[in-house]
Design goal:
By secondary structure, the chain is of the alpha+beta class. It is built from 11 helices and 14 strands.
């Protein structure tokens, strides 16, 4: 067990299953930037779905002060949660100049795991406009190795399902999809096999479009922009927009492993429309590497919908701590699960 190999301060506890106290802390966290604020409403379910999780918590008298949740993906460990109780929220207000307990112990943990060879990479996604996220990145030696686009696709009316078929209980990943993505950095298939698979096949039965999706629900407290706070309050009364965004329980779909033969923009539109139709939803949020060949090829050729016109494309940074110097030229695989 990793906790037994590290001489950490006794306030830090390792677990492979989340306690109710850890879940309560994570459910209470409001995420976002100085402009946008939201809260995940599926946290409890997501914790149960996490692949090979390791929970590292700061605990005092049974109270959980903070938690870092890792998804152990062979030698790449994804930092799923980095959350702290309100009593410790000042951690993110400025760069720490002292060797405080948290910084000292976590840096020691990262160093030991990397030097032992058990871990080759710790990685996470952070909002570059979020002070607390930047604090984590700066104080624990993480470097930006990629930029991820937050691309919305929306339809105010229910689209047609077209040729899109859905497999609600997939048993395997299509060979074409596995072959296409397996060379991308951070690719893993434990989450890809779960959930619903959507596909289009041509008249010969060959796969020409594919995506796996996850359903998500957020409470939106504030939208990006100068009038984001006001907009959230008036959204229920704005025609068309109120079909796309429901602040108290905003539901949307998150695709991953989006495969489109020949990067055909019409195929992508047909696939996304079909997914929305089958799921009776209006919004897709696609987190994709800005260097992804499909995305760079079709970005300017797609009508992304009303929501994209209002909020545009926001950027998320992929950050990593590793003993190996990484190039920023490689395409990084993004699992939709990691963002929700």
């Amino acid at each position: 067990m990793v906790g037994k190999t590290i001489g950490m301060h006794p306030i830090f506890k390792f677990r492979t299953k989340a306690t109710e106290e850890i879940i309560s802390l994570l459910e209470s966290v409001t995420l976002g930037t100085d402009g946008a604020h939201y809260r995940h409403l599926d946290t409890r379910e997501r914790i149960l779905e996490a692949d090979n999780p390791l929970f590292l918590s700061m605990e005092r008298h049974t109270k959980v002060l903070g938690n870092i949740t890792f998804c152990q993906r062979e030698k790449n460990w994804y930092i799923r949660y980095f959350a702290f109780d309100s009593s410790m929220q000042s951690l993110g207000t400025k760069k720490s100049k002292s060797e405080g307990l948290l910084k000292k112990e976590l840096n020691g943990f990262f160093d030991e795991q990397l030097k032992s060879g058990e871990v080759e990479s710790f990685y996470a996604y952070i909002d570059p406009r979020n002070v607390k996220s930047l604090w984590m990145s700066e104080n624990f030696g993480f470097e930006t190795i990629g930029e991820i686009a937050t691309q919305t696709y929306s339809s105010v009316r229910k689209p047609k399902s077209g040729r899109v078929i859905v497999d609600s209980n997939p048993k395997e990943i299509p060979a074409e999809v596995q072959a296409h993505f397996q060379s991308q950095r951070f690719f893993f298939n434990e989450q890809l096999i779960k959930g619903k698979h959507f596909s289009i096949r041509d008249n010969n039965g060959d796969l020409i479009a594919f995506a796996k999706t996850t359903s998500a629900h957020w409470e939106i407290k504030r939208l990006p922009g100068k009038f984001g706070g006001t907009l959230v309050k008036v959204l229920p009364y704005i025609p068309l927009l109120n079909r796309l965004i429901k602040p108290k329980n905003h539901s949307f779909l998150v695709p991953e492993a989006v495969f489109i033969k020949n990067n055909d923009p019409q195929l992508l539109t047909e696939l996304f429309d079909g997914i929305l139709a089958h799921m009776n939803e209006r919004v897709i949020i696609w987190w994709v590497d800005e260097q992804d060949e499909l995305y760079t090829s079709i970005q300017s050729k797609i009508n992304w919908g009303l929501l994209n016109k209002i909020i545009g494309v926001n950027q998320v940074n992929l950050v990593e701590r590793s003993l190996t110097k990484r190039t920023t030229e490689n395409t990084n695989y993004t699992s939709g699960f990691d963002f929700i």
